[in-house]
Amino acid sequence: MNTTEDAPLLNLTAEEPRHRALALTDDEYRAIVERLGREPNDPELAMFAAMWSEHCSYKSSRVHLRTLPTTGEHVLVGPGEDAGVVALGDGVACVFKMESHSHPSAVEPFQGAATGVGGIVRDVLSMGARPVALLDPLRFGPLDDPRNRYLFSGVVAGIGQYGNSIGVPTVGGEVRFAPCHGPNPTVNVMCLGFAPAERLLRGKPGREGSVLLLIGASTGRDGIGGVSVLASRTLEDDAHGSRPSVQIGDPFSEKLLIEACLEMAERGLLEGLQDLGGAGLTCAVSESAARAGLGAELDLDAVPQREPRMEAFEILTSESQERMLAIVRAEAVEAAREVCMRWGLDASEVGTLHTGGELRVSHRGRTVAAVPAAALADEGPEYRRPMERPRWLARIREDDPARQDLPVSVEEAFVAVFGSPDVASKRWVFEQYDWLVQGQTVQGPGADAAVIRLEGSLKAVAVATDGNGRYGSLDPYLGGALAVAEAARNVASVGAKPIGMTNCLNFGNPERPEVMWAFAEAVRGMGDAAAALGTPVTGGNVSFYNESGDSAVYPTPVVGVVGLLQDYRLAMRPGFTEAGLPIYLLGETRPELGGSQAADVLFGKVSGRPPALDMEAEARLHAVLRRLAQADAVGSCHDLSDGGLAVALAECAIAGGVGFHVSLLVSDMLPWVALFSESASRAVVTAKRGRWQEVESTAHAAGVPVARLGMTGGSRIAVHDLFEIELPDALVIHEGAIPRLMAPGRVGGD
Amino acid sequence: MKPRVGVVTFPGSLDDRDAVRAVALMGGEPVPVWHADAGLGGADAVILPGGFSYGDYLRTGAIARFARVMDAVREFADAGGPVLGVCNGFQILCEAGLLPGALIRNRSLSYVCRWVSIRSEATDEVLQVPIKHGEGQFAAPIDDLLRIEAEGLVAFRYCSPEGLVDDDFNPNGSAHGIAGIRNAAGNVLGMMPHPEHAVDPDLGPTGGQHVFEWLLAAAGARVPTP
Questions:
Q1: Is A322 on the interface with B (CB under 8 A)?
Q2: For an engineered disulfide with A351, which of A19, A174, A186, A212 has Cβ 3.0 to 4.6 Å away?
């Protein structure tokens, strides 16, 4: 396994043609021969195999991704670069990207997750931005299985260790649990960075004669595997040489890289900066050259190597961590090296850019590869894979959980849903992350969206991630659309205007038509919602092959939305902190329990239709929330999602330490259905003293339904005629659920 | 004239920029100091900030104590100059022998980031400050611990929001609930909680202001009158 999440580990046999051993198809091999006008040699084939892999070339997904809206008022850089960029005004740019590190994490949770953080941070750094926030959407199997607890605790500890040691706060994310993620944990990581807009490193980096400076860690045999195995040779020669391909992270080196690269950028020493991730040096050099419309000379003997006798293909495709490639004018090389030396980093001149478009690689004094850089970087295959809607879907969607009888009391139902791991407090997770470092965290984990302010400004960025796999499994179109709507609603719930999004699309094997159908549907849903809600897609990541045996992950598009807040002091918070404030529900509640948390917890069912999404209603809600925040009219604001109104109200009470009493005035559905319905486009707000008319009129004017539910106050969660729970008891249910499951006696035990 | 406060950056320091910002917000003049510097740039006080100096792969603070700048810090401290070590800075002061005891892995074996209450032993004030560390359990041989208590060197203890020192409110298993200690002369203070993250009212509680007020006052006493 390696970070290129393409193929299951290869079974190499001597008879197999070498390109197939590298997961290239016969057609792809023929295309390479045709492009080169000859047979590729081994190092060349390894380079093509890496660059034409699913991970690097997006060959199965590109035709669909191309349909996404990518431009908008705030977009500075869309898909195609290392990370997307939106403008925040005042000359500040926000760089952001999300990526998956699921496969390595399944093999080695701590290092797999840690190096995932390192990789996404370097993506943001490569645009010249200082990384300022991390978010981690995670999915695991149920915690009653010791292996799932091992994966969960290892991933969280790995994210913590890496993020905490590089001084980038981890401010949000989400964690969900489902049986399909047992064998296929999903580990996504999002990073945000800030940079002066005029100093962004983008576009065409470098000119004829620019020097390629390899900075940071030395290059080892780690991370060679999967697609990049010309290791048939290694296996034959030395059976013990086929070491595991999960890389080991060194966050200290990463921290030095961040500071050194930013210092070089600030001093104007860089023409371009490229991170070394999947496909290592091959990817960094070929993309840099291709982007500049040039070729490159690459001298592998100049690459500092961790081990003796490394082969050319190994140096070319190694995924050793904590390396960056700087593109520097010859006259700036000395100054750049001095900066690196000051930070204790190696900086080696490994090549130059030149005209002609050819990437020429030399090793041990002779040329070992000569291929067009663009053929590697831009001319990979593109597939329109067969798609088919699964036949079983129709039957499952007819099975509406709202038609079931509630098998328990409403109070018991609430306790079960509120204490279910998906809904329960994630304090056990986020207390292992430093969310304060850098000193700009206005709101950290546990709120609807994290809020990070810009240094020396009232402006702030709000950011949230979301993706509900249950919805995706029942209706991937809605799954994609609702993920965008929910993440944007999270951002709107602090008062910010959503301005852009990234994503990580977690799916099974794209060669299976039903997986490809779900993927296409999810992308279509995401695109429609992104267009309607003003959040163009600035980039993202596709993670296929998240399946083992018969079990694939739910079609899980995870979305990260970035929003702009003009004055962070007006950021809304979810907690009820004052008694005697009227509580309002904004938005319409319908009997929608399909794919809901309640149906899963109470009936053990993932069935029915996910909540409908009226994108205009969603956009209207966002506008109302923004207006209420700007007017400073509300005491609290919290969006509704998993577990519906019941969970949202209880979370508000716990967050602020003040109870409530509400009545449900519903006639068209059973009260418990109204409590747990997950209808989209809703939020709960309290009006500040004397401001209730303003809250009502703002909603009315925008055409957003508004209903007064009751008042804050007291020490109880009270829903009239249905149930009452003391706040401390609710706290124990909510805060205690995950620690109880993860109690020390249980980890790795049973 | 504003007191000048040196903030040392080691490779792997993380909260150095935050300490600089806090010094400025509290009315001091921050002076960046590099780990390889021979001197402290004429600072009237010094902060060793939080982070993972040199990666802390060996033992926290074990390598940083050998940094060139530490000779100057030691000299400064011996001369009565005010020195504040926060988190990794506290660990470095202990490794350098400027403060007694050591910081070992948290009792929970997990990193913990959390707002906590600490009680100032000098004033009985309860302060809200955040902790964020994996190795913050204060430990010392029993004789040292008794001496620390007898000489009144404990500066802060973890406590309940009401000021009660009890194991339930001890986030890392520190001996005697110790969150911070000072030297016998009173000019060197080390603490695991992060005062620099608790000075800006826009971001949360401001328990850290108390610590900076002490540091700036002590630094101000050294400022030569113009």
A1: no
A2: A212
Contact between B21 and A439 using a beta-carbon 8 Å cutoff: yes
Q: For the residues of chain B, what is the DSSP string, one character each?
A: -PPEEEEEE-TTB-SHHHHHHHHHHTT-EEEEEETT-SS-TT-SEEEE--B-GGGG-SSTTTTGGGSTHHHHHHHHHHTT--EEEETHHHHHHHHTTSSSSEEE--TTSS-EEEEEEEEETTT--EEEEEEEESS-EEE--HHHHHHHHHTT-EEEEEE-TTS---GGG-SS--GGGEEEEE-TTS-EEEESS-GGGSS-TTTS--TTHHHHHHHHHHHHTTSPP-
Q: Helix A42-51 to helix A280-291 angle, to the nearest 10 degrees?
A: 80
pLDDT at A237 over 50: no
Asked whether residue A629 carries a pLDDT value surpassing 80, the answer given is: yes
Q: Taking 80 as the threshold, does the pLDDT of residue A595 lie above it?
A: yes
Rounded-to-integer distance, Cα A281 and Cα A258, Å: 19
A526 CA: distance to closest CA in chain B (Å): 34
A248 domain-assigned: yes
Concatenating the DSSP letter of every residue in A328-393 gives E-GGGHHHHHHHHHHTT--EEEEEEEETTSEEEEEETTEEEEEEEHHHHHT------------TTH
Place of tokens 């970087």: A377
Query: Is the predicted pLDDT of residue A570 greater than 90, yes or no?
Result: yes
Q: Is residue A538 a part of any domain in this protein?
A: no
Q: CA end-to-end span of chain B, whole Å?
A: 8
- Tokens (6 digits) for A305: 């190597």
Reading phi first (left if > 0) and then psi (alpha if -120 to 50, else beta), residue A554 is in beta
Question: Does pLDDT of A234 surpass 80?
Answer: no
CATH code of the domain containing A581:
3.90.650.10
Which residue range(s) make up the domain with A318?
18-41+199-377
The confidence score (pLDDT) of residue A573 equals 97
A456 to chain B: nearest residue by CA?
A: B21
Mean pLDDT by 10 residues, chain B (226 residues): 95 98 98 96 96 93 95 97 98 98 96 98 96 98 97 98 97 98 97 98 96 95 59
Q: Say which of A431, A437, A568 has its CB closest to residue B14.
A: A437
**Domains of chain B from N-terminus onward:** 4-220 (3.40.50.880)
For the purposes of burial, counting CB atoms within 10 Å of the CB of B165, is it exposed (0-12), middle (13-18) or buried (19 or more)? middle
Residues in chain A closer than 8 A to B111 (CB atoms) = 157, 160-161, 164, 432-434
| Per-residue confidence band for A241, with pLDDT thresholds at 50, 70 and 90 | very low
Residue A552 in domain: no
Q: pTM (2 decimals)?
A: 0.95
Q: How do residues A258-300 score in pLDDT, each as one tens digit?
A: 999 999 999 999 999 999 988 899 999 999 999 999 999 999 9
